[in-house]
Amino acid sequence: MSEHQPTRYTIIGNHLTQHRELSLTAIGLGAHIQSLPDGVQVDIRTLAGRFPEGRARIAAALRELERHGYLERVRERTPEGRIVTRTFSYNAPEITRARRRAGETRPREGVRPPAPPPRTDPGSLAPAPPADAVPPAPPVPPPPPPAPVPVRTPAPPRPPATQADPAPSGTYARAATSLLAELRRDDDRLLLPERDVRRLAPAVTTWLERGATPEAVRRTLGGNLPPDLRHPAALLAHRLTALLPPPLPVAQPTPPRPALVPLQNCDGCDRAFRSPKPGLCRGCREPDAVTPTAA
Predict the structure, then answer these.
(1) What is the crossing angle of helices 194-209 and 232-242, to 10°?
(2) Which of 64, 96, 176, 261 is most exposed, with the fewest beta carbons within 10 Å of its own?
(3) How far apart are CA 111 and CA 91, in angstroms?
(4) CA distance 145 to 151
(5) Are 287 and 280 in contact (CB under 8 A)?
(6) How many Cβ atoms from other residues are within 10 Å of residue 113's Cβ?
(7) For the chain, percent helix, then strand, then coil, each to nearest 5?
(8) What pTM did the predictor assign?
(9) Would you say 278 and 265 are in contact if contact means Cβ atoms under 8 Å apart?
(10) Is the confidence at residue 227, as pLDDT, over 70?
């Protein structure tokens, strides 16, 4: 036989603790929520930090309680313009549903136990006033939970394309999309969703515009992968930004070679000399300018 506890206890109906359609996690979570005072946060993040169950199991248990009428989650807009979710717990779902069918417009008010029957004073025949004659104080709304901050992987910045490359950018864009989609053939962990392929394609296009071959880009992105790879898109974005090669230098034009003057035979001495047209060599044209050699 259990011992009576005068303080710090909660009365919970057997309709919850012995519910045949609720899971054990949902029954325990419903009992815990009913034991909390008004205004306490009971969102998924707070409950996951309190109990060892993960967020997925706690979210499934909350959906069970909400489906069977033990919880109600309402999205409201605060005066500041923020959207918050308020959770209301009911310890008697059947009574709550009956009040709603009767047309009452206060679905968020906690269900109170029924009033006791009127008692008669021994010295008077007039019945005592009912216990619920005094209207209860309105419930204090709980503080709004903090808005979750979305965490997104930043897209890699795309450097400006070089002007010296004559190939059209559309060809590089199609090649970059195909390269990213085919990385899963090298490693199953590099299976990227379509949105990540579209987001990373401009950075791969820059690599191709700077003279990197598709095979070189493929080896750089898919080589030496960590064994515990969890976020392939973030790793590829980092490699595309940190290992970006510099643009190829512009090739300098080669100076034209001088025209080769053909050989001619001198009409006077039959010696060979270079001249654009036939005639006399310099020795025959200027005999005094040629220094005689010693025999």
Answers:
(1) 20
(2) 261
(3) 7
(4) 18
(5) no
(6) 9
(7) 35, 5, 55
(8) 0.34
(9) yes
(10) yes
Contact 176, 204 (CB under 8 A): yes
The pLDDT value given to residue 127: 46
The amino acid sitting at 32 is H
Please report, as a single letter, which amino acid is at residue 36.
Answer: L
pLDDT bucket at 60, cuts 50 / 70 / 90: very high
Calculate the average pLDDT of the chain.
77
**At the topology level of CATH, where does 14-110 sit?**
Arc Repressor Mutant, subunit A (1.10.10)
Q: State the Cα–Cα distance between residues 36 and 27, nearest whole angstrom.
A: 15
How close are the terminal C-alpha atoms of the chain, in Å? 144
Dihedral sign for Cα atoms in the order 32, 34, 39, 45: positive
Closest C-alpha among 81, 23, 75 to residue 53 = 23
Q: What tokens were used for 228?
A: 């515990």
- 């899963």: which residue's tokens? 184
In whole angstroms, give the CA distance from residue 224 to residue 137. 66
- CA 94 to chain centroid, in Å, comes to 42
- pLDDT tens per residue, range 161-218: 444 444 345 788 999 999 999 999 989 899 999 999 999 999 999 999 999 999 999 9
- Please state, in angstroms and as integers, the Cα–Cα distance from residue 62 to each residue in 43, 53, 107, following that order: 9, 13, 18
Going by C-beta distance under 8 Å and a sequence separation of 6 or more, which residues neighbour residue 14? none
Closest CA to 108 of 139, 79, 82, 129: 139
- Angle value at C-alpha 200, between 196 and 206, nearest 5 degrees: 170
Q: Are 200 and 236 in contact (CB under 8 A)?
A: yes
Structure tokens at 278: 């036939």
Q: Which of 107, 110, 150, 112 is nearest to 130 (CA)?
A: 112
